Amino acid sequence: AEEWEYFFGRRYEAADLSSLVRANRMVLFYAPSGAGKSSLLNTALRRKLTAEGFAVLPTSRVSGDLPEGLGRVGNIFSFGVLSDLDGSGQPTDALVDVTLRDYFQSYSSTQVAVDGHESQQQLLIIDQFEEIFTAHPEAWMHREDFFKQLRDAMDEVPTLWVILSMREENVAALDRYKNLLPGGLRTRFYMQSLDHDAALRAIELPAQRAGRPFEPGVAEVLVENLCLTWIRNHT
Questions:
Q1: Higher per-residue pLDDT: 24 or 234
Q2: CA 223 from chain center: how many Å?
Q3: Which residues pair with 160 in a beta bridge?
């Protein structure tokens, strides 16, 4: 997030996604692997929504492992999210049986300050959400409960907004659970891979800003090589 000024090539996507999030409390954000979802979330989108009044919470994931010595948790996916969010300094075993609803109900507007910003609108970003299907396969029975916990948290905490970010190849696996969530996950944003001009900006402009610009024509060659590599890997 602190390197936001070096992030280029996704201006329109960041604007469109932030508009969609402002209007919808739950958004599914998906894209091809390697398209830059995490970079967009942690740089442009975080700054845009913070400026527009959201308290954007630390980006979390469902895939965290149990600390050594901690034998069990109520839901391993919820535990992963809450461990990433929690900055209280309490032992992790304090989160063993905490549900998402319980956790967010305990927040007040002064407790969701992020970078000095306070707001009643809290934005939870769960990145690499495909890990709900790929991480902890032994805990498959926790998946449905996690979706129910997320639904209950949004029902009971009307100030909670959620972005679920994942690879496009895993989106179909959500069909089994989508009706457990508000709106049935109908609000979605698909981000394509960078086109040629956007890729050129993503390569050229950070180097310029850092005071080490490319020689004329070099960045264009890099983009062409990247395009050829992508074609070879996807045909």
A1: 24
A2: 27
A3: 122
Residue 71 token pair:
């034998």
Residue identified by tokens 């970079």 is 39
Angle of helix 76-85 relative to helix 142-156, nearest 10 degrees, comes to 50
Angstrom distance (rounded) from CA 171 to CA 177: 11
Rg, Å, the chain Cα set: 19
* Nearest to 161, CA basis, from 45, 24, 19: 24
Predicted TM-score of the model (pTM): 0.85
DSSP-assigned states of every residue in 111-149: T--BTTB--SEEEEEE-STTHHHHS-GGGTTHHHHHHHH
What is the per-residue pLDDT across 142-168, written as a single tens digit (0 to 9) for each? 999 999 999 999 999 999 999 999 999
Query: In terms of DSSP H, where are the helices of the chain?
Result: 11-23, 37-40, 46-51, 76-85, 100-105, 131-134, 142-156, 196-209, 218-233
b (16+ CB within 10 A) / e for 90-125: eebeebbebbbbbbbeebeeeebebeeeebebbbbb
Helical spans, DSSP H, in 135-217: 142-156, 196-209
CA 208/CA 215 separation, integer angstroms:
11
Positive or negative, the Cα torsion across 32, 34, 38, 39?
negative
